[in-house]
Design a protein that fits this description.
With 631 residues, the protein is of the alpha+beta class. It has 28 helices and 17 strands.
Length: 631
Amino acid sequence: MCGIAGIIAPKLDRENREQAVARMVARQRHRGPDDSGLVSAQHATLGMCRLAIIDPANGHQPMQSADGRFSLIFNGAIYNYRALQAELSAKGHCFRTHCDTEVLLAAIAEYGAECLPRLRGMFAFAVWDAREHTLFVARDPLGIKPLYFARLPGQGLAFASELNALLASGLLDREIDPVSVGEYLAWFSVPAPRTIFRGIANLPPGHSLTLDAHGRLKTNQWWRIPAPTRPADVAQTYPDFVRGLRAQLEDSIRAHQVADVPVGAFLSGGMDSTAVVGLMARTGAQRLKTFSLIFDEADFSEQQSARLAAETFGTEHHEFRLTGARVAADLPQILRAFDRPTGDGINTYYASLAAHEGGVKVALSGLGGDELFGTYPSFRDLPKLAALIPWWRRLPANLRGSITAYLQSRPTARARKLADFLLHARDLHELASLQRRVLPESTRLALLAPEARRLAARLGPNHPMLETFAFDLIGAADFQIISAWELRTYMAEVLLRDSDVFSMAHSLELRVPFVDRVLLEWLWPQRTEFKFHPRHPKQALADAVADLVPAAIRHRQKKGFALPFARWMHGELRPFLDDTFSASSLGHCPWLNADAAGQVWQQFRHGGDPRDWSRVWTLAVLIAFANRRPE
């Protein structure tokens, strides 16, 4: 795991390039405190900082091929590197280390861009070809590892693992994009390829980028959600499916434990994390350390379930007590860790801190199980609503208008979200596109200043990738459509991105065995009725690990992991929120309607719906982010 950075700029002299890249590397040193390096070739400079996980004594980066042609910087882990090393050795490649970085370098030299489908892992890497004077950059299929890039004034390109690092180059402006503000208020994040900053792009998951010798930039989508059917891979009976799922899960867990340093796990006490820990124990993990958050607010704590799982598997279990006072005290450093605003991720920040303090450099997480096995209400509700949409659209326009106006006037977010569905969705794709909206459209537009509001209204309420994704999913079943949307939007743009930022803030490599290309490609064509039961979410997963996971956890009702934020916002976090929504603070947000933004906090503060806490917090983080001082 590393932080990578680079500049390719023919008009920038080597000394200034190297100084800028050094600043970028230093700003993300938390991503890799064990080692660092920098190399220049022609008009390219690449830099990195390394968290040494595989073959810690070796694997220094940037790594160059024996002939000097290729220079590689790599962030992530290639879990099948040993198999690839054997394959490449048979083709005549010699290896000096036991590091996945050297195997990746050889794979690039042997196969070029065609190496990407051979890689199993999480990655963002960049390779400079000194013979062709070209840069090739690629990101893993599902978006576990990030990569940002920007065109430099004049001519050239800069890229890095974090937005903060790009800004530290001193070559780019930190101007917040009002269009991106509108999208953030809609989705909890800014969908790729846009970022919160004007002129800086986010390379989407499963994409590569090439900068040729003439300075021309081309992006390519090298991986897509798998095709809807592959009959040869489909189990014919449910018992066959469960056996196949168990084999795939064990295979993924084994792959994700590849490391030469201690590997632990997050253990919330829910089905996903318990299954991961149980499978780790079954596949040979020794002296396994597990980590969970506990709260004084008993109705939010899953302490007993996590303890039951830890006792069952004999782990060395660590509990981290989290309070509102602790979060309030840590907010300055949490906000510094952000490289973009987010309304989520505080739980990952503290779970990662617990793992770091507990002595592990790698931890496995159960993230991704909800998206694969249909736990979210969207899997149950959206197909029903999609079936009603044609009937709804046949109603007289004035009647539809009256109904949606009534729903918009209701005080609950659920009613206002239903109004958005009825106003803007025509089919399941558009419903799925709108599902992860944070703020109702009318509220979002009201929060924006006139010019930002005009831009947001022109783009419309649907997710920006709607048309492209709908064509990618032609012929897919309803379950597949919703799963794909959840994987590509909320998981990729919020959960995985926050997991990367907040785990790396504590120099922890977080791995997600449910978010595995091999597992997804096997699971995708399986029959929906095997994967998903609307009344018993994750039944298939529970059956696949029935011999491992205690019945009390397998049969318990799903309880989404949540923090007692609504209570803390009325208590320990209130001073921060009062300051954040003050007139002076809002004065640094010209793209917001200051009066409307302030009213959001006042309504919540004076007895608003506690379930709206995430919407208030999302807005507060955006305002606080805009008030950060440049470093």
